[in-house]
């Protein structure tokens, strides 16, 4: 897995539990932190992605403390960071070029929200020819109403999103399985 990059999506202060509504996977950040530690110990490529709002009314307007990375996910100087304004981390960000220049073909994608920015990035990555793994226990999402107005819990959205990705866009796995493959 030496040519494998860890892509950390939107683990910003605005996503801390005190700033969000009901969610699933309370251990997701711990699992993402375990993966980040493993990547750092091995000197493998890490990409930190954060969302920045295009509107001053947005929760992630530049300059807001919500935009800052959560302390344990603060990028090291040697790690790549990028900002996005849409759910897809590849759209207009230069991420594909950054990965290709480093001969990275495999990605492990973690973060929030499973059914939004994580799913968008994974779909784009797969369509661009990257081999993608998603440890579902290192991702999370929130309760949300469906088109019929029925509020569905976060776990339902999470599982549906992972089900959409598995097989065609990514291999959905667990943190312990990724760590075991690293050796």
UniProtKB/TrEMBL annotation:
Keywords, in A-Z order: Hydrolase
GO MF, any single term: hydrolase activity
Protein name stated in the entry: Cysteine hydrolase
Occurrences of domain Isochorismatase-like (ranges): 4-176
CDD domains assigned to the protein according to its UniProt record, in alphabetical order: nicotinamidase_related
Organism superkingdom: Bacteria
Key word Aminoacyl-tRNA synthetase present: no
InterPro entries hit by this protein: Isochorismatase-like_dom (IPR000868), Isochorismatase-like_hydrls (IPR050272), Isochorismatase-like_sf (IPR036380)
PANTHER family reported for this sequence: ISOCHORISMATASE HYDROLASE, PEROXYUREIDOACRYLATE/UREIDOACRYLATE AMIDOHYDROLASE-RELATED
């Amino acid at each position: 897995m030496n040519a494998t990059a860890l892509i950390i999506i939107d683990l910003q202060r605005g996503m801390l539990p005190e700033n969000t509504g009901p969610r699933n996977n309370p251990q997701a950040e711990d699992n993402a932190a375990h993966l980040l530690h493993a990547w750092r110990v091995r000197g493998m490529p890490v990409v930190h992605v954060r969302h920045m709002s295009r509107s001053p009314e947005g929760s992630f307007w530049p300059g807001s403390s919500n935009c800052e990375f959560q302390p344990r996910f603060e990028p090291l100087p040697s790690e790549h960071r990028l900002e996005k304004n849409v759910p897809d981390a590849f759209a207009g960000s230069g991420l594909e070029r950054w990965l290709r220049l480093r001969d990275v073909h495999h990605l492990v994608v973690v973060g929030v929200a499973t059914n939004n920015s994580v799913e968008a990035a994974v779909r784009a990555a797969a369509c661009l020819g990257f081999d993608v793994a998603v440890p579902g226990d290192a991702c999370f999402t929130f309760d949300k109403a469906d088109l019929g107005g029925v509020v569905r819990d976060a776990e339902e959205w999470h599982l549906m999103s992972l089900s959409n990705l598995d097989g065609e866009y990514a291999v959905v796995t667990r943190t312990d399985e990724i760590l075991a493959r690293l050796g």
